[in-house]
Amino acid sequence: MSTLEVTDLPVPAKDERFPSVNQALNCWNKYNEWVLCLKKNEKDESKCFLPRFNMRELCPTEWVEKWDADRGEGKFAGLQEDDA
């Protein structure tokens, strides 16, 4: 299997669910889609590269770091990897 380079990946497509310029909700959903991917793939980050890439392209670094920290402390308001 070949390794994808970031330069090989296109910019995430416009999501018609979020037509406004403010992409905060789109970012929130992309982050939760990545967490859901981790949950479905037993936390195997290599299988969730594309959702993570798309989320990182849309979301400010500060938000991602905060949400990562919140998930680590078990107080993230979105999806939890360990939810039943």
Automatic annotation (TrEMBL):
Membrane-crossing segments per the record: none
Taxonomy, superkingdom: Eukaryota
Keyword terms, alphabetized: Disulfide bond, Mitochondrion
Cleavable signal peptide: none
Subcellular location: Mitochondrion
Pfam families: COX6B (PF02297)
Protein name: Cytochrome c oxidase subunit
Organism, as annotated: Nannochloropsis salina CCMP1776
